[in-house]
């Protein structure tokens, strides 16, 4: 604005000079040429000023866009860190439960010799060991082998006390491998057959996250809200509230 005003003032001065010269009757060709040179210089200065202002506007815009991107990246990083922290806490709790269960395991008992072909008891040490082996593979990050291990466990021990947990961890393995549709199938099956399992809230959260990753926003929002309503004051509920803010 200041530069435009200066340019206007310069034009006004030139107009006065021209008017004065014309009024005095002493206008020469040299006078007109001098005025043309001055006017050209002023126009060049004005053009340079406009270009400088345009560059400043561009820099300001780029700075604002960069600032917005940075804020978005920071927000995303915070959300990811919060989810990772929640996952670590869940893993810690899982390990503590497993350790407690292992300490309480009864003395190994062999199946009766009178029926060698009979199915292993559903709460026997063999089923416990099969589940534990698959669970350890999850903790090692060997998700493909963990899925195979849990499938083998489920085939051998379909009525064991940790069956619902096995289905949950199969879903978690698929989620970690970014096979979100497979994860959805496992979590939905688990929630349908074992709705009162202790892992219901966690399964629902990963179900919603899987749908979110697949771009199924409406379905994801529905499950996130369901978690908030059914599992208040839990980590999954707090995480779901944050996710609901993200989905537009």
Describe the overall structure.
With 248 residues, the protein is an all-alpha fold. The protein folds into two domains: 1-14 and 31-56; 86-103 and 124-246, Tetratricopeptide repeat domain (Serine Threonine Protein Phosphatase 5, Tetratricopeptide repeat). It is 79% helix and 0% strand. The chain has nine helices and no strands. It has helices spanning 2-24, 29-103, 125-140, 143-156, 163-176, 180-193, 200-213, 217-230, 235-246. The longest helix has 75 residues, at 29-103. The chain starts with a helix and ends with a helix. The relative contact order is 0.05.
Number of helices: 9
The CATH superfamily of the largest domain bears the name: Tetratricopeptide repeat domain
- Compressed to H and E, one letter per element, the order equals HHHHHHHHH
Principal-axis shape equals: rod-shaped
Q: CATH fold name of the largest domain, please?
A: Serine Threonine Protein Phosphatase 5, Tetratricopeptide repeat
The radius of gyration over CA amounts to: 37 Å
Total strand segments: 0
Would you tell me the overall average pLDDT?
76
Q: What's the domain count?
A: 2
What's the N-to-C terminus distance? 40 Å
Q: Helix- and strand-based class?
A: mainly alpha
Q: How much strand content do the residues show?
A: under 5%
- Output the CATH class name of the largest domain: Mainly Alpha
**Portion in helices:** over 70%
Low-confidence stretches: 2-7, 106-121
What kind of sheet is the major sheet? none
